[in-house]
Backbone:
């Protein structure tokens, strides 16, 4: 299962590189705010700014994922998917942290870890679909996908209680 997770992380990384390549040129004086695919690529990709600290517990990591899900789904529901661009590229990191934090919990069982990995995979797949939409992929019905993401998060909350 970890190899599937790794392949999803790699897919997110490739999507980020392909969709958010450096548009800096000598002619624009190094200002990387030029848009090459309809997205503003200014400061939103200063990824360190969106993660002021790494989560220290599973609960903190899950809260971060929940906040990103809300922001991302709201942007798509409101018809402004560009507003979710930075969060979509950062959610992969947040999901990796979620898995790491689950492994660090003192009394976590192998069965719990297996359930966490399964739900993290559901989240990766769902967010990957939305990232695909951002980069010219097939449209998705946001209402259905949001239900799937919410159900996976609810499952995660229950697994680690």
Residues:
């Amino acid at each position: 299962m970890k190899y599937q997770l790794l392949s999803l992380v790699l897919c997110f990384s490739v999507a980020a590189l392909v969709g958010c390549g450096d548009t800096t040129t000598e002619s624009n004086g190094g200002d990387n705010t030029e848009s090459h695919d309809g997205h503003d690529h200014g400061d939103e990709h200063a990824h360190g700014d969106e993660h002021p600290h790494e989560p220290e517990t599973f609960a903190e990591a899950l809260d971060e994922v929940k906040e990103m899900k809300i922001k991302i789904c709201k942007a798509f529901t409101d018809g402004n998917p560009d507003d979710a661009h930075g969060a979509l590229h950062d959610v992969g990191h947040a999901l990796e942290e979620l898995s790491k934090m689950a492994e660090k919990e003192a009394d976590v069982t192998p069965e719990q870890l297996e359930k966490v990995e399964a739900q993290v995979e559901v989240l990766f797949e769902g967010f990957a679909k939305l990232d695909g939409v951002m980069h010219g992929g097939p449209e998705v019905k946001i209402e259905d996908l949001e239900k799937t993401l919410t159900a996976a998060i609810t499952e995660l909350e229950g697994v680690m209680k």
Remarks:
- The chain has a mean pLDDT of 77.
- Helices lie at 2-19, 47-50, 58-77, 85-104, 110-134, 142-159.
- Residues 110-134 form the longest helix (25 residues).
